Amino acid sequence: MSTETAAAAAEVAAPPPAGWEEARSRVYAVGLAAALPTIGRSLAEADGHTLAEPLATRTDLPAFPTSSVDGWAVRGDGPWRVVGRVLAGQTPPPLAADGSTVEIATGAMVPEGTTAILRIEESARTADGRVTGTPRPVPEWREPGEEAYAGEELLPAGTPVDPAVIGLAASCGYDTLRVRRRPRAALLVFGDELLTEGPPGAGRVRDALGPAVPAWLRRYGCQVRPADVVGPVADTLPAHVAAVRAALADADLVCTTGGTMHGPVDHLHPTLETLGADYVVNTVAVRPGFPMLLARLVGDDGRVRFVAGLPGNPQSAVVALVSLVAPLLAGLQGRPMPVLPQVTLAEAVPGRGDHTHLALVRWDRAAGTAHPVRHVGSAMLRGLAGADGFAVIRPGTSGAAGDRVPLVPLPLTTGERAW
Ligand SMILES: Nc1nc2c(c(=O)[nH]1)N[C@H]1C(S)=C(S)[C@@H](COP(=O)(O)OP(=O)(O)OC[C@H]3O[C@@H](n4cnc5c(N)ncnc54)[C@H](O)[C@@H]3O)O[C@H]1N2
Ligand code: MOO
Q: For a substitution probing ligand 2, which of 313, 355, 376 has the most ligand atoms within 8 Å of its CB?
């Protein structure tokens, strides 16, 4: 069979593209089925991981009755005779007699027998040194279990570990957390036309994905070491096979850029076939980004790894990241499927026939509105650099101003789009 005939036959045999939402759910499900192993991490090293078990408090919170003010812990009616002092960190003896008091510091354990705490600034001393004053009617201490009872589940498994979670875990008595190992990702850049430095010209373009994709992957929780970014890989099948095989040795997810189509030097599909990969998704009915794919490989050790084929057009590669890679990584980390916020279109956005249209927009969070940006060709990155995400225009529809549509946010952190 000639090359042309073989390519034509492959086209005919190719399965239809997956719908965008169907592709996302399928990818999430295979990610969750291959969720990464759980490990113990000290609280200092847990940021960015995912809880593998629910967070349940190890004691009542607070663990003991705790004074919330500086003042006097009193028993019975005043004036009160001072019998001691209790500071934070101490275990006080009981207040045994009516008419007695101990000086107490904020955070100190309230002695048994205390009937009220009088604030220092609302107290006075008699000539013989006794304490007088009127305690406020509301208790000035925190009762054990007021925040949570011992054993109570505070956060479910699958919760991303952030500074607030770390602080809560510490206050509940944890030294380490059971978390999912963070995904290890690698990036292979394909394309002999790519320059890795200097201005583009004379048929050659700058590699825009080698520098950018690792940063996007890190924002989705991946570890990507500098040595995990390789390219441009020579446009030959043996070079592609060797590069993907080497990257798979360590990575849970290998992303590739370019070569997803069936052009004369597009070697990704033959590479996947050579390596015995199964397609989870092979093309998605979305514009831009149609030729994106996700394939799964099971190693001799039973370990499941993934190859995400990002199209070469730079904006399309980012569409593939938000469409396939984000749900895959959520599954691998044991997190819930990302829920897409709803936004109101500030202007009309055209549909793309029977394909989903992902349209770059700036998201005004205060107003809940999405504003289409300019310079959004799939080969362009100018619009992306001023956008917060993609408005989702469903197949067979177009977006009118005022329509409510889902938004796929870019994984930007606070302050990265300050207008
Ligand atoms: N006959 C057809 N040709 C194409 C179709 C089609 O349906 N029929 N689809 C087009 C679409 S849509 C896309 S997207 C691209 C995807 O192609 P590949 O994934 O095979 O990517 P390449 O051909 O390697 O590159 C496409 C384009 O992007 C530039 N590129 C590649 N890598 C980078 C990089 N790292 N940084 C910057 N720019 C990059 C490359 O130079 C090309 O201009 O296929 C269409 N063709
Ligand atoms: O799908 Mo391509 O990604 O439209 O440029």
A: 313
309 pocket-lining for ligand 1 (C-beta < 6 Å): no
Q: Which ligand is nearest to the CA of 194?
A: 1
> Measuring from atom 30 of ligand 1, which residue has the nearest CA?
312
Q: Would you state the pLDDT for residue 314?
A: 97
- For residue 311, which atom of ligand 2 is closest to its CA? 3
Using the predicted structure, report yes or no on whether residue 42 has a pLDDT greater than 70. yes
In this prediction, residue 13 carries a pLDDT of: 56
ipTM: 0.98
Global confidence as pTM: 0.93
Q: Which residue ranges form the domains of the chain, and what is each CATH number? A: 3-36+182-332 (3.40.980.10), 40-60+149-180 (3.90.105.10), 342-409 (2.40.340.10)
Residue indicated by tokens 């875990």? 169
Has residue 258 got a pLDDT over 60?
Answer: yes
Would you say the CB of residue 261 lies under 6 angstroms from ligand 2? no
> So what's the pLDDT on residue 417?
79
Q: What is the average pLDDT value for the chain, to the nearest integer? A: 95
E strands, 235-303, in order? 253-257, 278-282, 286-287, 293-298
Sign of the torsion formed by the C-alpha atoms of 284, 288, 291 and 292: negative
Separation of alpha carbons 306 and 290, rounded Å: 19
pLDDT of residue 123: 98
Q: For strands 194-195 and 66-67, give the pairing.
A: unpaired
DSSP 8-state symbol, 227: G
- What secondary structure letter does DSSP report for 58? S
Instruction: Return the ligand number nearest the Cα of 312.
Output: 1
**Average pLDDT for residues 144-156, to the nearest whole number?**
98
Ligand nearest to the CA of 205: 1
* DSSP three-state, residue 243: helix
Residue nearest to atom 4 of ligand 2 (CA): 288
CA distance 103 to 340: 54
CA distance readout (Å), 256 to 100, 185, 244: 75, 11, 9
Give the pLDDT of residue 415. Answer: 84
pLDDT of residue 137: 93
